[in-house]
Amino acid sequence: MSVLNPGKQAIKYCLGYCLPSVKENAAKIRIKRLKLDEYLLMYFSDFEFVYAYDPKKMCKPGDTVLVQNLPEKMTRLITHKVIEIIYPFGDIVDPITGKKVVREQYRDSMKRINEMYGEWSNAFDYDTAPPRGSQEDKRDFSHKDPVVRYHDDPNNPQPEAS
Q: Where does the record place the region Disordered (predicted)?
């Protein structure tokens, strides 16, 4: 039977949600854990926020990613690294059937229901929706490096930070 060295940490993988981050070469990841309330004997959601090393800048805000613990901390804050993107933000695909999903329904079944009962005039049309990345430089600036305004100085307006 092997015993772990108390000074070393076991490598483990976690599934997380990518958030906007100001750090270079790092992504802010929200990891959901279930915490047991011993009085009610029920599990409740508890979120842990970590920074993961992402030198290739693979993940964008909204992606579901697989992160791994680093054997030792890279910096004071960076404790994980991004392994791969499981679900990019946008169209969700069922991994077993390969069909596109909206909440708990397949899009094919939604189309059949709409054919039977008729479509709503204000329903969202998934077929004509643009793919992810069509709003870059218009509304989505997650591909650009963030600039932080540290102080307001009337002599130095810092136009690049606004």
A: 125-162
Q: What is the pLDDT of residue 60?
A: 87
Helix ranges (DSSP H) in the chain: 107-117
Spatial separation of the C-alpha atoms in residues 84 and 131, rounded to whole Å: 20
Q: What is the pLDDT of residues 51-60, one digit of tens each?
A: 999 999 888 8
Task: Encode pLDDT of 16-43 as tens digits.
Answer: 999 988 888 899 999 999 999 999 999 9
Question: What is d(CA 91, CA 103) in angstroms, rounded to the nearest whole number?
Answer: 11
- The Cα–Cα gap between 45 and 18 comes to 17
User: Are the C-beta atoms of residues 88 and 94 closer than 8 Å to each other?
Assistant: no
Copy the structure tokens of residue 3.
């015993």
